[in-house]
Amino acid sequence: MMLIRFNSNPCPTESRVATQTSVGFCLGVLASVVMIGGCVPRTEEDVVVYSALDEEFAYPILEAFERSVDYETSVVSKFDVESTKTVGLVNQILAEQNTPRCDVFWNNEILHTVRLQKQGLLARHDWPVPTDWPRDMISSDSTWCGFAARARVLLVNTKLLESADQYPQSVEELLDPKWKDNCAMARPLFGTTATHWAVLRDRIGHDVALEQLQAIADNSLILSGNKQVAQAVSAGRVAWGLTDTDDAMIEKELGYPVEIVFPDQQPDQPGTLRIPNTLAILKNAPHPVAAHRLANYLMTPQTEDRLAMGPSSQMPISKESKFPPAVLPDKPIRWMRVDFETAAENWDTWAAEVAQIYSQK
């Protein structure tokens, strides 16, 4: 959680209103402002952000937002642990739903954002994106928007698999007995691995997805998170594993003998799954003016470029982005077509079924 506090000197009157908003929202707010003694009062001193994106990536961008306004600011931040941070923040939002404290939820994935949408806890917003924004990157009711994606990739140890012909090419190879105990996946109870399998359940059906998850549990090394999978590959503990591009890039940049494979690229395969960051404004947010302003500030090609240039090498969605991330190969990637809103349906029941398979792994 990150709290951004605006500490400007108060106007002589006690009525207050935010002095900077998005253009559309500004007109409605300014129409209600009463000018007293020649001073434009303001209403909002804080904007509270619950951020599941790692502190090292989110904090500098939020600091840049602070510098973009005319007020002195202070920041207090709290970031949860790697494997459960999104779930923890979502549970906090659920616990606070009657008296929200959070204004903006910056999620580093999407499934749990959609869960909040389905429970009616997110506010509609006119997102500043073009009309051709990918349909799987913006909600059907304008309550969330996706940007700066990571991809679900296979990381290969090139000392254990010396020829590219030996590299796995599909996520389904996690089930292949030839890789018994020599491939790895994160426990699919949290984060992007949980999102990945919710999406696959929607594609291949509930029963088939559960059968595959059981086969993977029996065939693969199951670790606590995607970072641990990437580290197991780079250390040679396994020949390859399913992870995220940001974790894979860290191992590659550290000089370990690894290569990244974007899986399922053949015409009869579904394509590679990309999972975006998401932004959402909470319904009945305590500071809606500042929340809308911050959301508009973050949803820009410039933010995507900052994330692309960073060590996580996140992939911009905007066509106006100017910085291609290092993780992308030279040839175009076939992306999986996804309906995240459908994938999130019946999440609690599905999660309980998956937990029965993986709780002891």
TrEMBL record:
Record InterPro entries: Ferric-bd (IPR026045)
UniProt keyword Signal present: yes
Record keyword Signal present: yes
Pfam families according to UniProt: SBP_bac_6
UniProt keyword list: Signal
Protein name according to UniProt: Iron(III) transport system substrate-binding protein
High-level lineage: Bacteria, Pseudomonadati, Planctomycetota, Planctomycetia, Pirellulales
